Amino acid sequence: MNSDLLRKVYSSESFKKNGHQLIDQLGDHIAQAFDQNRGKVINWKEPSASLEFWRDYLNHGDSELLLQEALKRSTHLHHPKYIAHQVAPAAPITVLTSMISAILNNGTAVYEMGMITNPMERIITELLSEKIGYGVQSSGFLTSGGTLANLTALLTARKAKVSIDIWNQGHSKPLGIIVSEEAHYCVERAAKIMGLGEQGIIKIPVKADFSMDTSLLEKRYKEAVLNGIEVFAIVGSAPSTATGVFDDLKTIGVFAQKYKLWYHVDAAHGGALLFSSKYKGLLSGISASDSVVIDGHKMMMMPGITTALVYRDGRTSNATFSQKADYLLEDSVDADWYNSGKRTFECTKNMMALHWFSLLKTYGEDVFDAYVTTLFDRGIEFGKIVEENPEFELAVRPMSNILCFRYVNDHVDEDALNTININIRRKLLEDGEFYIVQTKLRGVHYLRCTIMNPFTTAEHFKHLLAKILILKN
Ligand SMILES: Cc1ncc(COP(=O)(O)O)c(C=O)c1O
Q1: Distance from the CA of 142 to the center of ligand 1, in angstroms?
Q2: Does CATH number 3.30.70.20 belong to domain 31-104+365-473?
Q3: 107-363 domain in CATH 3.40.640.10?
Q4: Using CA atoms, how far apart are residues 176 and 197, in angstroms rounded to an integer?
Q5: Are 341 and 347 in contact (CB under 8 A)?
Q6: I want to staple 268 with a disulfide (CB 3.0 to 4.6 A). Which of 117, 146, 358, 444 is the partner?
């Protein structure tokens, strides 16, 4: 009886039959959203209603209809009216590589379980390292998301820079990192996980354009040192999340060098610009960093989650999790490169290298240039449309595909404007034709768009603005 059930689970015949059907249905889903602009982007339901639906479905729903229900009830990233979070519409080829990863399930941490992915990770990160401008000592790996990659890089930084061996001995010494107040919240979370506490996160205010005010670095650093904090790292954002504005990576690099700090660049969003002939200047100065994080599932068309973490000196990353203090620093950069689990948080991870490798092999690196450059062009174009429209106001002129703006009206005060913009966003969500998000900057409520679909056009955007003018009432 049990073995019959298990035979059914592993039936290759039903896998093939269901699989063919599934690919057809998913292909139709892409066509409907991507090519025909049909259907809603989001079919909004209150959380309690969703919970009730799925509870009931588990008991009474038709298993044959699971895919239809999942499609109907999720948010459609392939739709050009999806202009919301920084998550890519996955390139279909990476949906296929996800299937390969799932069926092979080779966990990658040790060479025997990563005989294809460990070499692929090395090749991919060598390419990124070359683009960053690192030398021969560089190395890197792939890991599960920007959050984890930033934490890993900061752990490496602590190991490399702090005078005591905290990994093995613990610490009571106050330690600190420097970061812009606009950096992604995961940097602060990483610092807190590392026990740095509130005082150990030295937040640098931003300038009017929301980039780190580097003129304050000296003063804030010296204050921290006077307060007994051993500052070991500084983080640049390329760009920061809310506004898509890039920090001045060159100036931060010079500062890091002066005080011998570890220089980490969180390029989770903008790292793909390494491939853009038009916009790579925004990353100018990145070659002076010690480590860089680049998300594949943001600006490189891959499914979540896959992140490259690249180090200027790979030996430092060999030491991150080493139980014996620093012994690996004696080793060459090549030491054990094929057992990536020694350098990653994960023990088992999915075969994410397949996404990067298949995109590169099938379309060449120009595919990353085409995608990221188009999206940045669109962000700047949509910014101009907002600027030309007196009923709207930008938070800052966009440098990227992230755009924050709001509806404005001379006759009401700031509080009322905040309420109007909060309501606009809520009505857009309930309507579902477009999906955008929101953010608060210096106490002001903004509508926030990230253009992730290269086929979102100015016409879509103008239609969104027209719709907002109707919904504001
Ligand atoms: C600049 C930046 N860093 C890190 C992250 C976190 O990345 P992940 O969602 O891959 O953990 C984000 C996510 O939006 C981000 O924008």
Answers
A1: 15
A2: no
A3: yes
A4: 9
A5: yes
A6: 146
Amino acid 360 reads L
Q: What are φ and ψ of residue 391, in 5° steps?
A: -85, 0
Edge-first strand order for the sheet with 444-450 is 392-394, 402-407, 444-450, 437-441
- 266 forms beta bridges with 237, 293
CB 392 within 8 A of CB 402: no
pTM above 0.90, yes or no: yes
Q: Give the HSE-up count for residue 185: Cα atoms under 13 Å, Cβ half-sphere.
A: 1
- Ligand 1 centre distance from Cα of residue 268 (Å): 6
Start-end ranges of CATH 3.40.640.10 in the chain? Answer: 107-363
Torsion over CA: 148, 150, 155, 159 (sign): positive
Q: Which structure tokens are listed for 61?
A: 């729903």
Which atom number of ligand 1 is nearest to the Cα of residue 298? Answer: 10
Q: What is the pLDDT of residues 31-52, one digit of tens each?
A: 988 877 788 999 999 999 999 9
Encode pLDDT of 144-196 as tens digits.
Answer: 999 999 999 999 999 999 988 898 888 889 999 999 999 999 999 999 999 99
In angstroms and rounded to an integer, the radius of gyration of the C-alpha atoms of the chain is 24
Which residues of the chain does CATH 3.90.1150.170 include? 31-104+365-473
Does any ligand 1 atom lie closer than 6 A to the CB of residue 269? Answer: yes
